[in-house]
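Whiteboard transcription, Tuesday session. T.W. wrote the C-alpha cells on the left side:
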C-alpha cells in the first residue's frame, strides 16, 4: 500500500527535484502540494508548484498557503534560485489550476478526514503552513503520522547566517511550534544535504535522458550549482530537499540520532539555529531523528532510476 504524503514546499530547484522524485514513486501517494512563501514569494511558489506537477504529467492538486512568516518579515533567496525560483530553463506558464481553498484549511480538513497516523507531512521550506494549521486546529496534531523535513544544521552551521539554515531562519517561530508539537520528526539538516553533492557526470546523465524532466533537472542543477560551488568551493551542489523524499523511499540511505532539537527564537546572533543535542548533554527529552550522514551513491542511484521514469 502506498504511503499518503502532503508536500509543503517553496519551489526552488531542489524542491522541484524532490517533488518530481515523489511523483515518480508509486510507493508514495502525494495527496497535494501546499505552497508557502520562502525561496521566493507565494505567488511564485504556488506557480512553480503547478509548473512541476505539469512537467511530471500528473494532476496532483496545489494549494497556496501563508505568504509571510508568523511574526516576521519574509526573507527570500532569489540570490540562490533566481528571480522566478526556478531559473535555469524557460518554462511556460502552467495551465494546472490552483485550488481555491487555502493550504492551511486543506491541511486541517484533510488530517481531520483521515484516520490517525495515515498521513506524513513533508515540509521542504519554512514551516509556516504547518505551524499555522497546528495552532488553529490542535486536534490535528496527534493525527499526523510523522513529519520528515529539510531544515537546520548543526556541525555544518548555517547557510543564511553563520548559525541558521534558511528554512528555519525564515520562520523560527513556526519551527519552534512544530519541534515542540510532539509529532515524530525526522530532520534532514545541512549536515546531510551538504554530503549529497551533485556531480558533473550525474547532471549530464540527467540531460542525456532526453526527456523534458531530464532537461529541466539538468538545467536547474546547472543554475544553482554556480552559487554553491562559488560559495563552498565544492565540486557540486547539495540537493537538499530530495533527501526528504529519498528517506521515505529508502530510509537505510541515512543515519542519524534520536536527540533533542530546540529552535532559537530570540537571539540576534543565532536566530533560527537548530540547537541539536547531538552528544546528549542536556538531559532534554529527544524529539527528533536528526540525520548526520547519507549514502551519496545510493541517493543518486535512486534519483536517476526514479526521475528516468517520468
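and on the right, the sequence the group agreed on:
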Amino acid at each position: 500500500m502506498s504511503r499518503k504524503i502532503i508536500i509543503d514546499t517553496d519551489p526552488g530547484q531542489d524542491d522541484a527535484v524532490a517533488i518530481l522524485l515523489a511523483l515518480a514513486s508509486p510507493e508514495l501517494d502525494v495527496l497535494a502540494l501546499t505552497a508557502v512563501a520562502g525561496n521566493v514569494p507565494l505567488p511564485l511558489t504556488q506557480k512553480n508548484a503547478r509548473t512541476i506537477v505539469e512537467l511530471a504529467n500528473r494532476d496532483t492538486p496545489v494549494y497556496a498557503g501563508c505568504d509571510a512568516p508568523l511574526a516576521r518579515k519574509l526573507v527570500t533567496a532569489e540570490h540562490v534560485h533566481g528571480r522566478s525560483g526556478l531559473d535555469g530553463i524557460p518554462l511556460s506558464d502552467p495551465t494546472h489550476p490552483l485550488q481555491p481553498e487555502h493550504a492551511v484549511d486543506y491541511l486541517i480538513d484533510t488530517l481531520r478526514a483521515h484516520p490517525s497516523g495515515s498521513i506524513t507531512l513533508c515540509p521542504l521550506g519554512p514551516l509556516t503552513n504547518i505551524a499555522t494549521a497546528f495552532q488553529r486546529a490542535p486536534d490535528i496534531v496527534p493525527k499526523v503520522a510523522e513529519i520528515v523535513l529539510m531544515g537546520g544544521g548543526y556541525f555544518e552551521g548555517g547557510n543564511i547566517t553563520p548559525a541558521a539554515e534558511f528554512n528555519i531562519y525564515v520562520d523560527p517561530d513556526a519551527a519552534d511550534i512544530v519541534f515542540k508539537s510532539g509529532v515524530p520528526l525526522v530532520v534532514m539538516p545541512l549536515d546531510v544535504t551538504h554530503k549529497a553533492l551533485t556531480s558533473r557526470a550525474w547532471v549530464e546523465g540527467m540531460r542525456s535522458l532526453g526527456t523534458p524532466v531530464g532537461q529541466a533537472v539538468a538545467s536547474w542543477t546547472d543554475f544553482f550549482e554556480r552559487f554553491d560551488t562559488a560559495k563552498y568551493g565544492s565540486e557540486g551542489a547539495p540537493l537538499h530537499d530530495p533527501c526528504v523524499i529519498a528517506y521515505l523511499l529508502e530510509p537505510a540511505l541515512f543515519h542519524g540520532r534520536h536527540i533533542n532539537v530546540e529552535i532559537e527564537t530570540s537571539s540576534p546572533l543565532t536566530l533560527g539555529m537548530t540547537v541539536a543535542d547531538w552528544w546528549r548533554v542536556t538531559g532534554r527529552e529527544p524529539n527528533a531523528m536528526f540525520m548526520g550522514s547519507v549514502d551519496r551513491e545510493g541517493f543518486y542511484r535512486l534519483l536517476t532510476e526514479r526521475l528516468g521514469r517520468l
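Someone added at the bottom: Residues 16 and 52 are 6 Å apart (CA to CA).
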